[in-house]
Design goal:
Layout: H1 6-24, H2 30-43, E1 48-53, E2 56-58, E3 61-63, E4 68-73, E5 77-82, H3 89-102, E6 106-111, E7 121-125
Parallel strand pairs: 5-6
Antiparallel strand pairs: 1-4, 2-3, 4-5, 6-7
Length: 129
């Protein structure tokens, strides 16, 4: 598979999310958007892992604490999918934690329960990109 930069992956995911949102609209369950988005991204030839377990390392011990990344795209980009009235500080804290624990630099927080998808997308950077 081709090696993509984080920014290239983010563009592919955003365009894929637009396609999903145009076809399905708002109001469905998060799990439906998650699976459809993974399918759209994979159609672009990009590696996608759904609900990737993310261990917590504490005192040099890997602990399975139940953390799961919604989508890990291209091994570099974390995507958290939501279908809620609005994004909150808790959602931002969640993706920032995932970025820190995974050592990934870029994440997208996507809320599909909006009229215009661009209003439901947040780009989160961990460190310099």
């Amino acid at each position: 598979m081709k090696e993509y930069s984080e920014n290239e992956l983010a563009k592919i995911v955003f365009e894929s999310a637009l396609s999903v949102h145009r076809r399905l609209g708002p109001g469905l369950l998060e799990s439906a958007y998650l699976r459809c988005l993974a399918h759209e991204v994979a159609k672009n030839g990009v590696d996608v892992i759904i609900e990737k377990p993310l261990p917590l390392v504490y005192d040099e011990i890997k602990l399975e604490a139940g953390y799961r990344i919604d989508l890990l795209v291209g091994g570099k980009l974390i995507v958290e999918v939501k279908s809620t009235e609005g994004l909150s500080d808790v959602h931002m804290a969640q993706i920032l934690t995932y970025l820190r624990l995974s050592n990934c630099k870029l994440g997208l927080l996507i809320n599909f329960n909006v009229v215009l998808l661009k209003d439901g997308v947040k780009r989160i950077i961990n460190g310099t990109l």
